[in-house]
C-alpha cells in the first residue's frame, strides 16, 4: 500500500501590537532575536520605549512561544490577529529598534488618551450614520487595494503625512463625529489620540482594524470593497483572512489586480502601469536582472 503524500503545514501569521512602556528596548530586541532564530520565525518586529508592533510568521510552536514570552514580559493585552499563509511570507526575521512602533512624527499619548473602540459588529451601523465622517488612515496604495464604502481617503503616502492632512481639514471636521480605521488598529491608536489632543471630542475607531472586521464579519453582511493590503508576501487578504488575488509591483509597491496585470507596461518585477513612465531604461534593466536572480533562486 502506498503512503499518503505528506500534508504541508501552513505558516501561522501573527499581527500584533501593544502600547506599553519598555524600560530597556535593546534588551528586549536581543531576547526576541534569539527566540525568533531558535524557532525559525520570519517577519519584522518593531520595539520602542512605547511598546511593540509587528507581523511574524512561523509554525504553531514558534508563534505560541513568542506569545508566551511577550506575556511574560508584561505584554498581556496584545491586539493579536492570526491568519495563515501557504508559503513563507517573509524572507527573514528582523527586530528593529525605533523611536515609535508606528511613526506619526508628532507626540501623542495613546496609552492615556485614545478614541472609543467600535467592534466589527457595530461598524456597519457607523458607516450608515450620516452624521459620522469615516476616515481611512492608510497610505494611498493600501486604499487602492480595498476600502470601506463611503470612507474619506486622505491620499497620503505615509502615516507621517496624516497630521498635516488633519491640519488642512480640521475646519471641515469641526463639531462632527469622526471614526477612523486602518489595517490592524495600531495607526488609529495614534490618529484618534491626535484628534483628541487637537480638541475633537467624538472620536471612534474600528477595534482590531480591517483584519478583525474581515475575520469576524460574514461576507454577506460586508461593507468592505476589494481586498486588504498586508505587508507580507501574500500582498492582500480577503474575508476570513484568506490570501487575496493581488500581486505587488516590485518596482513601486503598487498592488495589482488581474486586470492591471494585463496592462502593456506590466512586466513582472520590473514595472506596471502606475510606475513605468517614472523609471529609466537603465533602472528597468537593473530590475530585470534582480528578477532573474530571484527566479533562479526559486529553481
Description of the structure:
The chain has 299 residues and is an alpha/beta fold. The chain has eight helices and 15 strands. The protein has helices at 25-38, 60-72, 120-127, 140-145, 162-173, 186-197, 209-216, 281-298, and strands at 11-19, 42-48, 51-58, 79-85, 93-97, 116-118, 132-136, 146-148, 177-181, 203-206, 224-226, 228-229, 236-237, 247-248, 255-256. A hairpin with a 6-residue loop joins strand 12 and strand 13.
List the helices and strands and how they pair.
Layout: E1 11-19, H1 25-38, E2 42-48, E3 51-58, H2 60-72, E4 79-85, E5 93-97, E6 116-118, H3 120-127, E7 132-136, H4 140-145, E8 146-148, H5 162-173, E9 177-181, H6 186-197, E10 203-206, H7 209-216, E11 224-226, E12 228-229, E13 236-237, E14 247-248, E15 255-256, H8 281-298
Parallel strand pairs: 2-5, 6-10, 7-9, 9-10
Antiparallel strand pairs: 1-3, 1-4, 2-3, 8-11, 12-13, 14-15
Amino acid at each position: 500500500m502506498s503512503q499518503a503524500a505528506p500534508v504541508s503545514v501552513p505558516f501561522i501569521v501573527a499581527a500584533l501590537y501593544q502600547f506599553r512602556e519598555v524600560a530597556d528596548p535593546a534588551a528586549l530586541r536581543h531576547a526576541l532575536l534569539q527566540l525568533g532564530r531558535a524557532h525559525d520565525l520570519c517577519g519584522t518586529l518593531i520595539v520602542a520605549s512605547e511598546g511593540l508592533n509587528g507581523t511574524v510568521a512561523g509554525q504553531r510552536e514558534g508563534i505560541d512561544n513568542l506569545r508566551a514570552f511577550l506575556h511574560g514580559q508584561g505584554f498581556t493585552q496584545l491586539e493579536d490577529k492570526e491568519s495563515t499563509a501557504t508559503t513563507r511570507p517573509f524572507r527573514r526575521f528582523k527586530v528593529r529598534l525605533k523611536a515609535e512602533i508606528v511613526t506619526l512624527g508628532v507626540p501623542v499619548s495613546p496609552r492615556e488618551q485614545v478614541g472609543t473602540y467600535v467592534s466589527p459588529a457595530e461598524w456597519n451601523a457607523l458607516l450608515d450614520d450620516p452624521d459620522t465622517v469615516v476616515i481611512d488612515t492608510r497610505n494611498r496604495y493600501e486604499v487602492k487595494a480595498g476600502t470601506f464604502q463611503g470612507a474619506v481617503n486622505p491620499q497620503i503616502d505615509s502615516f507621517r503625512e496624516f497630521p498635516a492632512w488633519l491640519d488642512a481639514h480640521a475646519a471641515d471636521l469641526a463639531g462632527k463625529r469622526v471614526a477612523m480605521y486602518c489595517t490592524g488598529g495600531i495607526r488609529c491608536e495614534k490618529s484618534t489620540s491626535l484628534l483628541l489632543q487637537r480638541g475633537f471630542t467624538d472620536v471612534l475607531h474600528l477595534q482590531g482594524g480591517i483584519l478583525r472586521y474581515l475575520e469576524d464579519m460574514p461576507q454577506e453582511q460586508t461593507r468592505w470593497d476589494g481586498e486588504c493590503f498586508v505587508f507580507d508576501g501574500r500582498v492582500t487578504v480577503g474575508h476570513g483572512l484568506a490570501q487575496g488575488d493581488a500581486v505587488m509591483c516590485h518596482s513601486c509597491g503598487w498592488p495589482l489586480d488581474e486586470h492591471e496585470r494585463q496592462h502593456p507596461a506590466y512586466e513582472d518585477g520590473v514595472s506596471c502601469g502606475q510606475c513605468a513612465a517614472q523609471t529609466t531604461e537603465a533602472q528597468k534593466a537593473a530590475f530585470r536582472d534582480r528578477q532573474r536572480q530571484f527566479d533562479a533562486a526559486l529553481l
